[in-house]
Amino acid sequence: MPRFGIRKTVHNFITDYIGDGDFDDDVALEDLGLDKKDIMELITRLEDEYGLTAFTSEEDKLLEQAVTANDLWRFLQQITRH
């Protein structure tokens, strides 16, 4: 799966949540107004988009570690390898 495609999709999905696409992918998701519930919904939408399923322990780990949009697309890249 192309890295750029994943990154663009993550950016677009976050834009849907916050209503503005003018943000840097290194900015904390919480600083963009997303809470843990929003992040979990975002992960679910991204999994659906790519036909992926992460194990619950992986999702829990992501929730603890997902701080930025970059973290989300790196996670998606990781679970596509399983």
Automatic annotation (TrEMBL):
Pfam families, sorted: PP-binding
Q: What residue stretches are annotated with the Carrier domain?
A: 1-80
PROSITE patterns the UniProt entry points to: CARRIER
Q: What is this protein called?
A: Acyl carrier protein
